[in-house]
Write a structure and sequence with these properties.
Layout (H helix, E strand, L loop, with lengths): L15 E2 L9 E2 L2 E2 L17 E5 L2 H4 E14 L3 E3 L7 E3 L7 E12 L6 E4 L5
Amino acid sequence: MGILQRVKDEEGRYLIQRPVGDSNVSTIWNRPIELVDVLPDEDASGEDTPIAFYTDLNKTCVYGDKGGLRVKYLTEATISSAGESPSSINLAEEDMVALRIVKRTGYVPLLPSGIAVLTLGDES
């Protein structure tokens, strides 16, 4: 993200625009940027390693449901926090319940030419 924040277009404007107003979302060409954890970072090895992509997934891909929702009612479990200060809650000790909900979806790119992929490599 830091690399892309320094890139300018042909008219000298920064590619990534800062958030405007109450929004805390940066944009590229007035489209929101969505950060995900599944792509490698810029420290990944290999010149063909994708680190970012730009597309409108609604226009280039088809989404599908892979089995609906799976819901499980939990009365005995320990739930851990993924935040900076790890803590855990034992549902049985605290007389609490929780729901575990899993939804699986998939997608297929139908128009791969509409997806721009940024990969690692030598600067030019």
